[in-house]
Specification:
Chain lengths: ~270, ~400
C-alpha cells in the first residue's frame, strides 16, 4: 500500500495545509471579487475581470470618510489602551496593594462579557450622563475593551522578567529613568507590541459596541453593514484586500528584520 | 587620591536589616573588609549573607547602621551612585543586548563615548573577544559568568561584589572559575566581597572568611584559622567535618587541660580552648577526621606515648580513592569519622575490627559544651530554621 504509507508520512503537512486553506480562503475570495465587475448592486457573482474599483477606491460616497474615522479611532484607542494597560500590568505585577487580587480578575471581565451586554450598558451609561454620542464615546468604549487584552499581554511578559535585570542596571550606573528606558521597556516591548496590535485589530473591526454608541458617526464596519442591505460596492473588497496586504507586509518585514538582525549578531 | 590605601575599604558599622514582615535577616553587624582583599561571606541559605552584600551594593536599605567605602559614607546613596559593582547570581545579563553592549552598559551610562577599546580589552581579559556580537542566551554558563564579571570590572569599581557567582556551574567549571577569579582579583587588585554557601569555594579563594549564621557573624578569620581553631560548633561542623566529644575537665597540667571522656583521658592545649575550663565543667573536644590515626587493637602497644587515644570498632569503611573514610563506634561517641590516606593500607582495618584512634594533643580544640553538637551540620535544627525563613 504505497499510497497509504505516502499519506501517513505527510498527514501532518496535509492537515496543516488544509487548515491554512480554511483560514485563508475568505481572504482569497475577497481579493478575487475586488477585481469583479458586478451586474446590478450586489458583488456576489463573478462576472468579469476589471480594475475599475482599484482605480477609484473612494468612488463610493462616504466610504473613505468612514474608513478614515475607523483608522483614527483605532490609532487613538491603541495608544490609549497600550499606555494605560502597560501601566496597569506593571502595577499588578510589581506592587502589592489592597484589592490587587480582585483587580486581577476584574480585568478579565470585559473579555469574558458578551459584547451586546457591554454595548447596551455603555449606551445606558452615556445617555444617563448626557454625553453626546459620536467619535469620543466610540473611542472611550474601544479603549475600555482593548485594555484587558493589553494588560494580559504585557503582564505575561513582565511576570517572566527577572527583577535582577533592573537591579543590575541600577548597579551599573543607570538611574531610574535610564533603567526603565534601557532595560525594562525593551524587555517588555514584545508584550506591549502584541497588546497594541491586538488593540488596533479589535478596535478597527468592532461593530456591535460601536453601533450602539456611535450616534450619527459611521465607522467602516458600520458602513459595510449598512451598504450590505442595499448593495455591496466592489470598493469594500478593495479596502479589505488592501488591509490584508498591509498586515501581511508588516508581518513579513518584521520577520525579515529580526532574521537579518540575528544573522548579523551570530 | 589622598588616601589610596584605604579607599577600597568596606566598613559596616552596626548594620542590620529587618524586613517589613518582621523577619530580621541581619542582626547588628560590624565588619571591615580591607582594601584589596578577597573576602568571603560564608553561610547556609537564609543566613543573611546576600542581604549584607545587597546593603553594600545599595540594593537594600539597612534598618540601622552605616556603610562606608573608604572615607565616604554611602549608606543612603542609591546603587547607581556607588563606586561598587555586582556580579549577580544567575548573572542577570541583559537579554536584549549583545555581549559587547552588556559589557559597555556601565561605561555608556556614565556618558563615556568611546567605549570600543575598553570593551574589547575587557572581553579579551575574560577570553570572549570572539563572542562580542552574540546574545547572552547563545553562550554557555561559564561564558555568561565571565561576561558578568567583565561587565562589572570594566567600571573599575572600588569594590566588586559577587553573589554566589559560581552556583550555576558544574563542579569542574566551578573549580576552573575559582582559580580564574582569584587570578583576576590578584591582577586588578580590587576588593572582592564574595558570597557563597560552598565552604570549599570560600576557603580556596578568600584571604578572609566570615562565617555567618542566623544573621550573625559566627567567626571571622583566615581559612586555615577557621578550620584549625573553630570558635563554635557551627563553624566546626560547617567548615569541613569535626568529631565532637563531650568531656569533663579533670585537672590542669601546665598549658594543657586534662579531660575525662568515657574511661580515658584526653589532653587539650589550653590555648586552643574557647570555652571556660573549670574543674568538673563540661567541654566539647573537637578533632578533625584527617588528624586521627587508626591502629588495629592488636598493635596498640606500638602507639607512642603522649598521644590522645580512644578505643572503638569500625562500623563502616568507604574507599574514595585518595583516602578511606571510616566510621568508628566508640564508647564516648557514636559515629567518629576518620579519614586515612591510602599510603599503606592495613588489611585488617575492615568493618567489625577493634581499633585504637590516636592523635597528637596539639590538634585537639575545645568548645563550649552549652551549644548544640549538631549546629551547622546538614539537616540540623539550626539550618532548617534558616531555610524556613
Amino acid at each position: 500500500m504505497p499510497f497509504v504509507n505516502w499519506l501517513k508520512r505527510r498527514l501532518v503537512v496535509i492537515a496543516g495545509l488544509l487548515t491554512l486553506g480554511y483560514l485563508l480562503l475568505p481572504n482569497v475570495i475577497v481579493t478575487v471579487f475586488s477585481f469583479n465587475k458586478p451586474k446590478g448592486r450586489f458583488n456576489y457573482e463573478w462576472q468579469q475581470f476589471s480594475l475599475d474599483a482599484w482605480k477609484q477606491p473612494c468612488g463610493v460616497a462616504d466610504m473613505c470618510g468612514s474608513l478614515s474615522i475607523s483608522l483614527q479611532i483605532a490609532i487613538w484607542a491603541t495608544i490609549g489602551a497600550t499606555v494605560l494597560g502597560t501601566m496597569i500590568a506593571f502595577a499588578l505585577v510589581r506592587y502589592r496593594f489592597r484589592a490587587r487580587g480582585a483587580i486581577n480578575s476584574l480585568i478579565f471581565l470585559p473579555m469574558a462579557m458578551p459584547e451586546v451586554v457591554m454595548a447596551a450598558s455603555l449606551l445606558t451609561l452615556f445617555l444617563n450622563m448626557g454625553a453626546q454620542l459620536g467619535f469620543m464615546t466610540i473611542l472611550i468604549a474601544h479603549i475600555m475593551f482593548c485594555l484587558s487584552f493589553v494588560v494580559t499581554a504585557v503582564k505575561a511578559r513582565v511576570m517572566s522578567m527577572d527583577p535582577r535585570l533592573e537591579e543590575a542596571a541600577r548597579d551599573l550606573y543607570a538611574g531610574p529613568v535610564q533603567t526603565f528606558l534601557r532595560v525594562t521597556l525593551p524587555i517588555a516591548a514584545p508584550g506591549i507590541a502584541a497588546g497594541a496590535l491586538l488593540s488596533f485589530a479589535l478596535s478597527f473591526d468592532d461593530f456591535i459596541i460601536t453601533n450602539f454608541n456611535a450616534g450619527s458617526t459611521v465607522t467602516f464596519p458600520m458602513f459595510v453593514w449598512g451598504s450590505a442591505q442595499r448593495g455591496t460596492p466592489v470598493q469594500i473588497n478593495v479596502i479589505g484586500t488592501a488591509m490584508f496586504l498591509v498586515a501581511v507586509l508588516i508581518t513579513l518585514s518584521s520577520m525579515v528584520i529580526s532574521n537579518r538582525r540575528n544573522k548579523q549578531k551570530a | 587620591m589622598t588616601t589610596p590605601d584605604n579607599s577600597g575599604d568596606v566598613r559596616l558599622s552596626g548594620i542590620s536589616k529587618t524586613y517589613d514582615n518582621g523577619f530580621t535577616a541581619v542582626q547588628p553587624l560590624d565588619l571591615t573588609v580591607p582594601q584589596g582583599s578577597f573576602f568571603a561571606l560564608l553561610g547556609a541559605s537564609g543566613c543573611g549573607k546576600t542581604t549584607t552584600l545587597r546593603m553594600i551594593a545599595g540594593l537594600e536599605d539597612p534598618t540601622t547602621g552605616a556603610v562606608h567605602l573608604g572615607d565616604q559614607e554611602v549608606t543612603h546613596l542609591p546603587p547607581y551612585k556607588r563606586p561598587v559593582n555586582t556580579v549577580f547570581q544567575s548573572y542577570a545579563l541583559f537579554p536584549h543586548l549583545d555581549i559587547f553592549e552588556n559589557v559597555a552598559f556601565g561605561l555608556r551610562r556614565r556618558g563615556i563615548k568611546s567605549v570600543k577599546k575598553q570593551v574589547e580589552d575587557m572581553l579579551d581579559l575574560v577570553q570572549l573577544g570572539e563572542q562580542a556580537r552574540k546574545k547572552p542566551h547563545q553562550l554557555s554558563g561559564g561564558q555568561q559568568q565571565r561576561v558578568a564579571v567583565a561587565r562589572a570590572l570594566i567600571n573599575h569599581p572600588k569594590v566588586l561584589l559577587l553573589d554566589e557567582p559560581l552556583g550555576a556551574l558544574d563542579l569542574k567549571l566551578r573549580r576552573q572559575m575559582q582559580l580564574e577569579l582569584k587570578r583576576i582579583q590578584t591582577e586588578v587588585g580590587i576588593t572582592f566581597v564574595h558570597v557563597t554557601h560552598d565552604q570549599e569555594e570560600a576557603m580556596t579563594m578568600a584571604d578572609t572568611v566570615a562565617v555567618m549564621n542566623a544573621g550573625r557573624v559566627e567567626q571571622l578569620g583566615s581559612p586555615t584559622d577557621l578550620y584549625e581553631n573553630p570558635d563554635t560548633t557551627f563553624v566546626a561542623n560547617f567548615l569541613g567535618t569535626s568529631n565532637l566529644i563531650e568531656a569533663e575537665v579533670d585537672t590542669k597540667n601546665g598549658d594543657d587541660i586534662v579531660l575525662k571522656a568515657g574511661g580515658g583521658k584526653l589532653v587539650l592545649p589550653e590555648a586552643r580552648c574557647s570555652a571556660p575550663t573549670k574543674a568538673g565543667g563540661k567541654v566539647l573536644v573537637g578533632i578533625r577526621p584527617e588528624k586521627i590515626s587508626l591502629t588495629h587493637a592488636d598493635d596498640a602497644g606500638d602507639i607512642p606515648e603522649g598521644r590522645n587515644r580512644l578505643t572503638g570498632k569500625i562500623a563502616d569503611a568507604s574507599f574514595i580513592g585518595v583516602s578511606t573514610q571510616y566510621v568508628i563506634d566508640s564508647p564516648v561517641c557514636d559515629e567518629l569519622a576518620v579519614y586515612v590516606q591510602n599510603v599503606e593500607r592495613d588489611g585488617r582495618l575492615v568493618p567489625g575490627a577493634d581499633v585504637v584512634l590516636h592523635w597528637s594533643p596539639a590538634h585537639t580544640f575545645g568548645l563550649d559544651a552549652a551549644q548544640s553538637l549538631l549546629a551547622g551540620t546538614v539537616g540540623s535544627a539550626g539550618t532548617e530554621e534558616e531555610a524556613a525563613a
